[in-house]
From TrEMBL:
Keyword presence, Nuclease: no
Name of this protein: Caratenoid biosynthesis protein
Magnesium in keyword set: no
Coiled-coil regions listed in the entry: none
Taxonomic lineage: Bacteria, Bacillati, Actinomycetota, Actinomycetes, Mycobacteriales
TM helices/strands, residue ranges: 20-40, 47-70, 90-110, 115-132, 162-179, 191-213, 219-239
Keywords assigned: Membrane, Transmembrane, Transmembrane helix
Name of a matching Pfam family: Caroten_synth
């Protein structure tokens, strides 16, 4: 997958080249997620997913940078990741789509009750951010106003960030649950191989990258553990030869 190749290139470049690779990674992640969603459920479903996740992601980021709610006080480094709206690079909401989609699919693969799936997505989103935030802060893409109220070894990222992620992702999950019930298109079982590959690469590949190539061993541990409960459940299902399909409804 081109998305994986772009991620492999990320630690190999610096400066403006790394910024460009970051944008490419995000675009390819979102494109891969939406292409898979369209293939298994239809273009209308994929468009709705994009509107819900990237739309809410953008609104939350605009509110966050302007008011500090829901994530805490922070600001983006502008003119590095392309055009921005209200001081939020427009590539950022696409990152939400690329990152949330595989977690949403895996959550649906492992649990069937909609309410449980919603909580699983929110918790999984926080696990993903335990990789994302340390990596992007280390690269100078955004910075926090308060830098001493976070997890041990990552105090520069405040606890409010993770609470905000959980809350926003929970709202996304609620809207997605409704959308899956009313969206047009075939709601029959669909293959999940692409989403599974995206999730496993994000989990295992990020652990390797943070620990070995990016000099971020602490976030390698936190992020690895943050997604391990989902990843282990997925691997057990795969080893047992479970039916790797999910009902989109």
């Amino acid at each position: 997958m081109l998305w994986i190749l772009a991620q492999i290139a990320y630690p190999l470049v610096t400066g403006a080249a790394r910024d460009q690779v970051t944008v490419v990674v995000v675009l390819l992640a979102a494109g891969t997620a939406l292409a898979h969603a369209a293939a298994v459920r239809g273009a209308a479903y994929a468009l709705g997913f994009l509107v819900i996740v990237s739309g809410l992601g953008l609104l939350s980021e605009i509110a966050g940078t302007a008011t500090g709610i829901p994530y805490g006080c922070y600001s983006y480094a502008l003119d590095r990741l392309g055009p921005a709206l209200a001081d939020v690079p427009l590539v950022v909401p696409l990152a939400w789509t690329g990152g949330i989609y595989p977690i949403w699919v895996i959550a649906g693969l492992l649990v069937r009750r909609p309410a449980v799936r919603m909580v699983v997505l929110a918790a999984g989103a926080v696990g993903w951010d335990l990789f994302l935030d340390p990596q992007m802060v280390a690269d100078g893409q955004w910075a926090w106003c308060v830098t001493d109220t976070g997890l041990p070894g990552m105090s520069h990222i405040p606890y409010t960030n993770y609470l905000g992620w959980f809350a926003v992702a929970l709202v996304m999950a609620g809207l997605l649950t409704v959308w899956e019930r009313v969206a047009p298109g075939d709601a029959s079982d669909g293959p999940v191989g692409v989403a599974v590959a995206m999730f496993l690469w994000t989990w295992l590949g990020s652990m390797l990258a943070h620990a070995v190539f990016l000099g971020l061993p602490v976030s390698a541990v936190y992020g690895g553990l943050g997604l391990a409960w989902l990843g282990v459940g997925l691997l057990i299902r795969l080893v047992r030869g479970g039916n790797e399909r999910i009902r989109f409804r």
